[in-house]
Design goal:
Length: 538
């Protein structure tokens, strides 16, 4: 369909939101409540635009204006500016932003004035200063001065929602991102608006936030209302060295940004990766970085005559290694590496083995079984129509994989991608999405996913796969029927079924995958087990 943005015609797929249409045309619209992976709700009213569309006569032809060859479809404009995040662009629609419309510019400046009405202007003391969406948009779209001289509303500051998340109620602009996040992503109704009008505030009735994925609300908060208590006041945003990298705490490999100051790791935030973690990371990956700086080895250690580890230079450490190797047959030497080591460390170990003639190179921990079934990606999990989890506690083994399963339960709707990135407002996403628990089966011990599963089978992990291949109970037969009736089934295998699996494991898995057409994810034993295995460190 063709849409006109400030006089620029763009070609867009049907169903595109008006805000994404503006960004596709190279324009800009301010917004606070919209988020790429959350439902659009039009709560902040900052993304206002003027819009109009052509109309059709009863015979299907467009209502025209002008005469002869100069006739064009008449555009019927809405009487007031509309929120572009909740409005669908249609064929022939015309949209005006603040760039070409004084009405829109005044409306957005007015909304900014209302947003700042009770917002404290304490940017120099706010931990979000320098990385605040409200700061940026107030500068770009606000009046630049306040007409209100009265005292602002006061509310609780430094209010702990949990040990890791601090809420400043005065700074909250009621965008509802955090509320929608809990409802739509981990499927937990935790936060909500309390009271009304100028007394409205965000809180949880139960007290505290559930562990697992609560820290993501500190990333998506557009102001300094929700703050990471672990990294709070550790430095200004412009003082950090921002390094995009990959989390190494589990095999998922989430994209993250590591913020360091003066060589010290201070903060971890989620990075966007549509194929892996989208825009979310687990609490362990976000808040667990403190251990990396505490008692961290910054120099080699060697044992002295008393057997105590003492600091040494690299030359002294290499000499100690040489003394250790002396008198030994290198063919009797085996080199081992932790399975959370990087590929570079694995390659270095292989080079050391080649230089010394070591007998074998291996990594630990790893599983002895091999998986020959078709491999599933995390996107396959999110878009599947049936998922069976066998012998896995995903909260411990691969937390973000749990979020992709929950995404599957609510329809597997992945926002489309445009030239400006992931869609800002996917109109298919809705608040309080309906979930399909009958699409999920969990076999093994009770876990966090247990409550979301329509099929729950308590079973010993090691024999679960064989029992599913040849079901001996009604519950297992129902799970097998689920796999056989699905068009895009995925089987997820965890530690309980992979650890110490028998020789028939591979054949049972291959038979089950061939019978049902399922793809398989076998969660590796450690963060980089699969990568080191690809280096033949076995």
């Amino acid at each position: 369909m063709k849409v006109h943005i400030d006089g620029i015609e763009v070609e867009l797929p049907a169903g595109t939101s008006a805000i994404d249409a503006v960004f596709s045309a190279g324009g800009d619209v301010p917004y606070f409540c919209a988020h790429k992976y959350l439902s659009p709700v039009g709560a902040c009213r900052m993304c206002l635009v003027e819009s109009g569309s052509p109309r059709k006569n009863p015979d299907g032809s467009f209502v025209m204006e002008g005469e002869g060859d100069a006739a064009t479809p008449k555009i019927f404009w809405f009487p007031k500016p509309m929120a572009s995040c909740t409005m669908q662009a249609t064929e022939g629609m015309h949209i005006r932003t603040a760039k070409t419309s004084e009405v829109v510019a005044k409306a957005q400046a007015g909304m900014m004035e209302f947003t700042l009405l009770n917002h404290p202007l304490d940017c120099p003391t706010c931990d979000k200063g320098g990385a605040c969406e409200l700061q940026d948009r107030a500068f770009e779209y606000g009046y630049g001065a306040s007409r209100f001289g009265f005292d602002r509303r006061h509310a609780d500051k430094h209010y702990p929602l949990s040990d890791f998340v601090i809420l400043d109620q005065e700074r909250c602009i009621h965008c509802k991102r955090c509320v929608r996040y809990f409802e739509e992503v981990p499927g937990q109704e935790v936060l909500d608006f309390i009271e009304r009008g100028g007394h409205t505030f965000i809180d949880t009735q139960e007290g505290g936030l559930p562990t697992g994925f609560s820290g993501n609300i500190t990333d998506i908060c557009p102001v300094g209302a929700l703050l990471d208590n672990v990294a709070r006041f550790r430095g200004r945003n412009w003082e950090y060295d921002h390094t995009p990298t990959t989390c190494t705490l589990c095999p998922v490999g989430c994209s993250i940004t590591v913020d360091a100051r003066n060589g010290r790791l201070e903060r971890i935030v989620a990075g966007e990766n549509r194929d892996v973690n989208e825009a979310w990371i687990c609490d362990a990956g976000r808040f667990g970085h403190v251990f990396a700086s505490e008692e961290r080895l910054t120099t080699p250690l060697i044992r002295d005559e008393d057997g105590q580890l003492v600091p040494a230079t690299w030359d002294a450490a290499i000499d100690a290694m040489k003394r250790g190797f002396s008198g030994m047959r290198t063919a009797d030497v085996a080199l081992y590496l932790g399975a959370d080591s990087t590929l570079e460390e694995g390659a270095a170990l292989e080079a050391l083995a080649a230089a010394t003639g070591a007998r074998s190179v291996d990594h630990s921990p790893r599983y002895e079984v091999s998986v020959t079934a078709p491999q599933a990606t995390l996107t396959d999990v999110a878009t599947a129509d049936a998922v069976v989890v066998i012998g896995a506690d995903l909260g411990e083994e691969a937390p973000v994989l749990e979020l992709r399963i929950l995404e599957m339960l609510r329809g597997g709707l992945i926002p489309p991608e445009f030239a400006h990135g992931t869609a800002i407002a996917d109109l298919r996403l809705v608040e309080r999405p309906a979930r399909r628990p009958e699409r999920l089966a969990v076999i093994g011990q009770e876990s966090r996913l247990w409550a979301h599963a329509g099929h729950r089978v308590s079973a010993n992990g090691r024999g679960a796969l064989a029992r599913l291949t040849h079901p001996d109970t009604d519950e297992l037969r129902a799970v097998l029927t689920l796999l056989e009736g699905a068009e895009r089934p995925v089987i997820i295998l965890g530690a309980d079924v992979l650890n110490g699996a028998s020789g028939s494991f591979s054949s049972n898995l291959s038979d089950l995958a061939a019978r049902t057409g399922a793809k398989v994810i076998a969660i590796p034993a450690a963060a980089n087990s699969r990568g080191l295995g690809a280096l033949n460190l076995v």
